[in-house]
Amino acid sequence: MYLLLAGLGSLATVLAYVAYTESIWSKSLRTRQAVLDQLGLVQRAESKIYRFVGFFHPYCNAGGGGERVLWTAIAHIQREHRDIVSVVYSGDTDASKTDIINKVKARFAIDLEPSTLHFVYLKSRYLVEDSRWPRFTILGQSLGSIYLAWEAMCEFVPDLYIDTMGYAFTFPAVTWLTRGAVPIGAYVHYPTISTDMLARVPAESWKMWAKRAYYRLMMYYYALSLSHARFLMVNSSWTRNHIASILSHEHFGPTMCWASRLTPLLAVELALSSRALRTTMLVVGSYPTAGSPAIQTVQTVEPEIVYPPCDMREMVKFRLDNREPTILSVAQFRPEKDHAAQLRAFAQLLMDHPEYKCSPTSKVHLVLLGGARNAGDLARVGKLRSLASEFDILNHVTFVVNASYPEVLKWLSRSSIGLSTMVDEHFGINIVEFMAAGLIPLVHASGGPLHDIVVPYQLGPTGFHAKAPGEFATAMHEILTLDPVQTTTLRERARRWATERFSEEEFVKGWEKSGWRSHIP
Asked: Judging by DSSP bridges, how do beta strands 417-420 and 397-401 pair with one another?
């Protein structure tokens, strides 16, 4: 009797799952035609059938390097694949389509075609805000992203789903909600959790041991989520090495794999596993008519490096000599960018070399230029102002918030040093822009800036590295006191390397090489 009841319960669950996902697909099919009508596109079976590529990017209007990747990819698709409609899942509910297109033009000088661009607005973006999860932030944001994926698929199911912001935990949700019929890909800027995070937690107490176990368990589930992807693009060798290592499961061992199958963690294992879905679909035996006819065999994909694009057309025109003694930082006002370290380093420079404060010909200035996404970022700018005042350097520091693209170019054309202090920066488009514009980059000795960007070229250096604020201050002084010939030679070398390796053309080649188009049913 017990087995009979259990069997009936399982059958009821499967039937409920089929009915619910069928309703999602039915709604989406109706929405597709409404979107085409709204965009003024006519679908002709004999000539043109429009396909929809969904880009999951809740902060698409933030104006950072990740957004440049998104909009460059979409602009390329609009030029070269005219039968594709790009659907952006955005949480920017306060910005209209026109507002976003205009900001992309102003910030990145990228022209978007409105007729093949559609926005699906997500009302629950607050669930992935780090401020909402003061404890267990990674877990909270991951659960929030799953809910966002549910909201997205309930509004519109695409033919191909691409995450361009780093929410891998949406992959299992999309797979389950679409019965595995929608292929999944991603452009990964930064792993949600990395081995570096584990290394920074010493196992000195039971609390630290518990934190390491929490991180390791989240990394295990992160690997399961990534396994749903058909293709993975990454922005640097640092990111590739971390993602490949996570996918290999080399950090988990038998203990972690055994622990993850304990009740109630077994339910999480099944929910995130792509193999579990494939087994379920074989039992269900039905697939959406708008999707692919069957679920393909699960295979771990190799992440491929596709360096982010940098539009250097204007920057390479800037002259390399007669620059102002200005140190420029270009980075969103987010915690990980560590603007406070920049202020400390600059304060140390002025303390060690007071001549930079008062000399009319060598008065050094620090400019912090970046985007502020929300009230939290604006509050962070206020705290940085207070810190600059505390260091008695406020008169030598300028804050430029949410600058337009022409204003960014103005500062790039006149400054001498490009500063970045983020630890384990995944890539750093701003650093490439420094080099193309003729600034000498001074970056943290880690991540993409160390291994991919500020590297030797033609047997010579292309910039400087540092770690502690004192080291940054020393490097600033060294750069400012280089003789003119050394300075020009270094700037020329850095510009040649940047334009050769990190152009928009190279990004487009890598994007197409990923084979994203071949995955569209």
From this structure: unpaired
Cβ–Cβ < 8 Å for 488, 455: no
Buried b (16+ CB within 10 A) or exposed e, 93-106: eebeeeebbebbee
Considering the domain architecture, whether residues 261 and 392 belong to the same structural domain is answered as no
> What element of type H or E holds 197?
helix 195-199
Do 182 and 157 lie in one domain? The reply is: yes
Q: What is the CATH number of the domain that holds 28?
A: 3.40.50.2000
Same domain? 273 vs 378? no
Say whether both 123 and 51 belong to one domain. Answer: yes
Dist. CA 141–CA 221, nearest whole Å: 14
Count of structural domains within the chain:
2
What is the full per-residue pLDDT of the chain (521 aa) written as tens digits? 444 444 545 677 778 888 888 899 999 889 999 999 999 988 765 556 899 999 999 999 988 889 999 999 999 999 999 999 999 999 999 999 999 999 999 888 899 999 999 999 999 999 999 888 988 899 999 999 999 999 999 999 999 999 999 999 999 999 999 988 999 999 999 898 877 777 777 777 888 888 888 888 888 889 989 999 999 999 999 899 999 988 887 666 666 666 666 656 667 777 787 666 666 655 555 444 444 433 444 456 899 999 999 888 889 999 999 899 999 999 999 899 999 999 999 999 999 999 888 766 668 999 999 988 888 899 999 999 999 999 999 999 999 999 888 899 999 999 999 999 999 888 888 999 999 999 999 999 998 899 999 999 998 999 999 999 999 999 999 999 999 999 999 999 999 999 999 988 999 999 999 999 999 87
Residue 165 CA to residue 69 CA, distance in Å, equals: 10
Cite the beta strand spans of 38-142 per DSSP E: 51-56, 84-90, 117-121
Burial class of residue 67 (count of CB atoms within 10 Å of its CB; 0-12, 13-18, 19+): buried
d(CA 297, CA 116): 32
Domain that holds residue 410: 315-502
DSSP 137-187: HHHHHHHHHHHHHHHHHHH---SEEEE-SS-TTHHHHHHHHTTT-S-EEEE
Instruction: Give yes or no for a contact between 161 and 183, defined as CB atoms under 8 angstroms apart.
Output: yes
CB 442 within 8 A of CB 408: no
Are 197 and 154 in the same domain? Answer: yes
